[in-house]
Amino acid sequence: MLTYTPLDGDHVARLKRVDDHGNTPERALSGGTGTPCRHCLCDVPEGEEMLILSLRPFPDLHPYAEQGPIFLCAADCAAHDPRRVPPVLTTSPDYLVKGYTSADRILYGSGGIVPAHEIADYATRLFTNPDIAYIHVRSARNNCYLCRIDRDAPEP
Q1: The organism sits in which domain of life (predicted)?
Q2: What is the pLDDT of residues 70-125, one digit of tens each?
Q3: What is the 3-state secondary structure (H, E, C) of the chain?
Q4: Which of 12, 36, 70, 102 would disulfide-bridge 55, Cβ 3.0–4.6 Å?
């Protein structure tokens, strides 16, 4: 079973104060679509306040540590249940999916633009390679980080 890992609650709390560029997040009202929160993995509801900030979903700085814009619910939200496919992976026809090694480097040849309904199968195939430690799913249009996929879901 795959685990669809949202941003950790402690990381989200820090990002709400200061982003990975060291800036205070911008505030805006959500239009209701195209504003996926990386903690609950749902679009921020229409008319609700959201934060726009920079995220580097890697523990260290290095050439492969991509950084870019994301949204978070300004109000507290529950973390996505990692055993379920997140809503943010059902709102686009396709996504950029790529594997990373335990050294947080892209495994060349693992990336691809994948139809939404094929993400689980693609991730399962990638995980047959023992060099792949985890997978990132990003927007196929804007390259924005959406979530991480890990091999096994935690027990409920």
Answers
A1: Bacteria
A2: 999 999 999 999 999 999 999 999 999 999 999 999 999 999 999 999 999 999 99
A3: CCEEECCCHHHHHHHHHCCCCCCCCEEEECCCCCCEECCCCCECCCCCEEEEEEECCCCCCCCCCCCEEEEEECCCCCCCCCCCCCHHHCCCCEEEEEEECCCCCECCCCCEEEEHHHHHHHHHHHCCCCCCCEEEEEECCCCCEEEEEECCCCCC
A4: 70
